[in-house]
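Input.
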Amino acid sequence: MTSKALGLLEGDPDGFFLMVESGLIDWSAHSNDIRRVTAESVEFHNTFQTVMAWLGTRTDTLVILTADHETGGLLATSQGAGNYPSVSYTHLTLPTIYSV
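Output.
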């Protein structure tokens, strides 16, 4: 979808803004589903590679890659190539702040 969107938008003489989001990473982290988090992270990486390939040698384009937050307190430890990492979740409890 990102490749198609770039192809449709790149000819606009006024330029364009395109936001690409991987929302299932968030849902997966909330439910502590490491397999889905991993799969969604790989897809997001592939999407970013698509954008960078499209970017090529353009000098008129700004790309920003960011994450809004991490959920679940995910700690992943590599188990080697081709294996899912071992994981633990450390939900942080923040103090409740009351305002009057």
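Residues 32 and 56 are 37 Å apart (CA to CA).
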